[in-house]
């Protein structure tokens, strides 16, 4: 992240075919923690999500776990898969109960957040669920009613059963205690939020793709300490914290996912081709998907964000073309560094 756009790590050489003007553009770091690269990654991820959405009302649900279970997921990140699997099984079971012969299948996207507003370890699942499902014969049936009590109790049972299989007999005592301490199940927020198709797409871009902490929440850095603020859930009070920079970094790196771990997963009709898929109307048409995909390349993103074309020749206004691509430690790049005086 520190080496983002560092010329010594390679880049692309552009030239103007009209006047011969040259320009070198260094490579970015592609890190999700980078404010610049992470924002681009989130925009592209939100676009891919939007392409899958059926044109219907969606509901945002949050599946949380009690504090006494969080330590197990911190020690063993592979257990985070149990969170995804539990949410998947519970949501599918709720829709299957509507009609056992039709087996209505919704479409839903699950996103894992391991952080709370105070940046501490707090794994939970955000799910965007269609308020309806595709059946074996019936193309689509709306389902505006979500069984709140069923979601809480079923999520508790399925998750604890999966953890029992992973952790073995030593977990049995804590499992029994959790059943006593949480008789109404684990907290699941599933209230209607009127997410129409247009609002849903904007919602995905703004919320589900957000980083651990936005730069707007970081108030000050004096070289030793970092000051940031957040709004507390319980009373909506703004809390300001000032902690050593090393502790701040420790809180951030705690949420870096393991290599190849999927933080976003698709289920139901969004996971694979469904036989009713051709009968369902998508939020984005094929034509709109093709048009929007062109706006997500490097050149157009710079143009839309900052208002200038990075490949427009400043001398004559002609579009510049790629001449060479240099990678670190290649012979051509070493020669280019000597000529341009980099490193």
From TrEMBL:
- Looking at the record, the residues that make up the Transposase IS801/IS1294 domain are 107-275
Q: Which GO terms describe its molecular function?
A: DNA binding; transposase activity
InterPro entries found in the cross-reference section: Transposase_32 (IPR007069), Zn_Tnp (IPR026889)
Q: Which residues form the Transposase zinc-binding domain?
A: 1-65
One GO biological process term is: DNA transposition
Q: Output this protein's name.
A: Transposase zinc-binding domain-containing protein
Specify the species: Enterocloster lavalensis
């Amino acid at each position: 992240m520190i080496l983002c756009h560092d010329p010594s790590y390679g880049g692309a050489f552009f030239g103007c075919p009209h006047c011969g003007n040259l320009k070198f553009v260094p490579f970015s770091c592609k890190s999700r923690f980078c404010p610049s690269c992470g924002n681009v990654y989130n925009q592209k991820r939100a676009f891919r999500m939007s392409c899958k959405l059926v044109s219907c009302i969606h509901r945002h649900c949050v599946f949380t776990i009690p504090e006494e279970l969080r330590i197990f997921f911190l020690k063993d990140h592979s257990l985070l898969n149990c969170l995804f699997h539990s949410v998947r099984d519970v949501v599918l079971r709720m829709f299957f109960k509507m009609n056992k012969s039709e087996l209505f299948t919704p479409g839903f996207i699950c996103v894992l957040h391991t952080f709370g507003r105070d940046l501490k370890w707090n794994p939970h699942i955000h799910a965007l669920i269609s308020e309806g499902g595709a059946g074996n014969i019936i193309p689509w049936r709306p389902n505006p009613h979500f069984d709140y009590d069923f979601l809480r109790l079923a999520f508790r049972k399925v998750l604890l059963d999966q953890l029992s299989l992973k952790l073995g007999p030593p977990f049995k005592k804590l499992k029994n205690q959790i059943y006593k301490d949480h008789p109404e199940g684990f907290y699941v927020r599933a209230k209607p939020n009127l997410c129409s198709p247009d609002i849903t797409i904007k919602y995905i871009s703004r919320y589900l793709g957000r980083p651990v902490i936005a730069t707007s929440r970081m108030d000050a850095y004096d070289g030793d300490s970092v000051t940031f603020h957040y709004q507390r859930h319980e009373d909506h009070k703004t809390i300001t914290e000032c902690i050593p920079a090393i502790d701040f970094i420790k809180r951030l790196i705690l949420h870096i996912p393991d290599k190849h771990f999927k933080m976003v997963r698709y289920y139901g009709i969004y996971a694979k081709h469904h036989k009713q898929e051709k009968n369902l109307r998508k939020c984005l048409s094929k034509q709109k998907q093709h048009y929007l995909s062109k706006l997500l390349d490097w050149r157009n993103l710079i143009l839309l964000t900052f208002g200038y074309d990075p490949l427009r020749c400043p001398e004559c206004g002609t579009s510049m073309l790629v001449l060479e691509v240099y990678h670190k430690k290649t012979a051509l790049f070493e020669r280019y560094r000597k000529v341009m005086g980099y490193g």
